[in-house]
Specification:
The chain is built from 16 helices and 2 strands. The protein is an all-alpha fold. Strand 1 and strand 2 (367-368) form a beta hairpin. The radius of gyration is 21 Å and the shape is globular.
Length: 405
């Protein structure tokens, strides 16, 4: 790959996730501060991204990458997205705000697949080259959090600036996209269907009892995940943590560190043990949040944030690898699409709504009873853990071979 191409792709990934990290992490704080939103309304706004995750495979698989060059459609989507992010700060009611976030999410989520497609199209050896490009996406999310924390926008009544920042970045990436390496559309005559876009070819995996148990557990564990994504920033700000967004990037740093351990552990301790470690980490995280404070137990808040690496990598990244191993080459893409649809789509949709109801149920005159709120995802994670221990039976996956149950 040419050095200029590598720089452009790295910049693309940096901006792609800088945009997401700019508005997504602090949206709960923005809504509570500016729109006086309830927990249900905040949960609904976060569910917009889950809805978009379920719909975006159809946008990309059936329309975008079959009739338009990937870099051009991505440019148009980001430019339109910039307008919507700017408009999000102009509304003062929760109803219009929700619809703006939903429409924006429907524009943004397809760009993740498009950016990956643009990158892969330029690589001779994606297995070696893609991680070095994708890591700039994690860096972009981290920089966004550091910048927002440094500017103290969460606590100075300037929370709308996070949307202005995301809008400016989206406009910039939209412009840059037209100068990215050309990625031609797939032939319009190529076979495509709604079923293929959804990944129904991978339903054959459900004949394997071990994978079915794992798949159900993956959907259920998205409920605790939704509590973190939707309300961790609001929680930290409410209890008085300074620069909460910048401190939360420790979770992304942790994610980057622990992901390096997965290739070494996957074939050594077995997929079941890795998944169990991920679920135990979810329980520990929420217990840390339940008992943490800004005084003697400040360390527990940091521990809860840093555990994100184990929570996410050891369950979801391991889950993607496990899915690929079980699927094999023939239905690999369909299986990954189905797993994404079920977790970041269906699972997160359920979780975002449920977490909103829970947060509202423990609202107090002084704010919220966060200890009781964090007990709920901890208990759910415990339930998933017990279910997984009782019913998951899988032979250890041998290196470079498919496993059979």
């Amino acid at each position: 790959m040419k050095s200029t191409t590598s720089v452009l792709l790295s910049l693309m990934m940096f901006m792609e996730y800088f945009i997401w990290g700019s508005w997504y992490v602090t949206m709960s704080t923005y809504m509570a501060t500016n729109l006086h939103s309830s927990g249900i309304q905040i949960g609904a706004a976060y569910s917009a991204l889950a809805i978009a995750t379920m719909i975006s495979p159809f946008i990309v698989g059936l329309i975008a990458d079959r009739f338009f060059a990937a870099q051009r459609i991505m440019g148009v989507l980001h430019l339109l997205g910039a307008v919507l992010l700017f408009l999000a700060t102009a509304v003062t009611m929760n109803g219009p705000f929700y619809w703006i976030i939903l429409i924006y999410s429907l524009l943004y989520m397809p760009t993740i697949a498009l950016s990956n497609s643009i990158a892969f199209n330029q690589m001779r050896d994606p297995g070696k080259e893609f991680p070095w490009i994708r890591v700039f996406g994690t860096l972009g999310w981290i920089v966004a959090g550091l910048l927002i924390g440094k500017m103290q926008w969460e606590k100075t009544g300037q929370t709308g600036n996070t949307f202005y920042l995301a809008a400016a970045a989206s406009a910039l990436l939209g412009t840059i996209s037209f100068f990215l390496p050309h990625t031609p559309p797939k032939a319009a005559s190529s076979q495509a269907s709604a079923a293929k876009a959804l990944g129904t070819d991978a339903f054959v995996l459900f004949k394997n009892n071990a994978y079915l148990v794992f798949f159900i557990a993956a959907i259920l564990v998205c409920i605790p995940l939704s509590f973190y994504y939707g309300f961790a920033n609001a929680f930290l700000n409410e209890i008085g943590v300074q620069g909460a967004a910048s401190k939360m990037i420790l979770g992304q740093i942790s994610e980057g560190v622990f992901i390096l351990a997965i290739p070494f552990l996957f074939n050594r301790i077995g997929v079941k043990n890795m998944l169990l470690m991920g679920m135990v980490a979810w329980i520990l995280r929420y217990l840390c949040f339940a008992y943490g404070n800004i005084d003697a137990n400040l360390w527990m808040l940091y521990a809860g944030i840093i555990l994100h690496g184990v929570c996410y990598d050891f369950f979801f990244v391991t889950g993607y690898m496990y899915t690929e191993k079980k699927a094999g080459a023939a239905i690999k893409n369909a299986a990954q699409g189905l797993f994404t649809f079920a977790t970041y789509g269906l699972g997160m949709f359920i979780g975002t709504w449920f977490s909103g109801f829970v947060v509202d149920n423990y609202k107090t005159t002084a704010g919220h009873n966060w200890t009781k709120i964090w007990y709920v995802p901890a208990y759910i994670a415990m339930g998933v853990l017990v279910y997984f221990i009782l019913f998951f039976r899988e032979k250890r996956l041998a290196a470079n071979s498919q496993a059979t149950a």
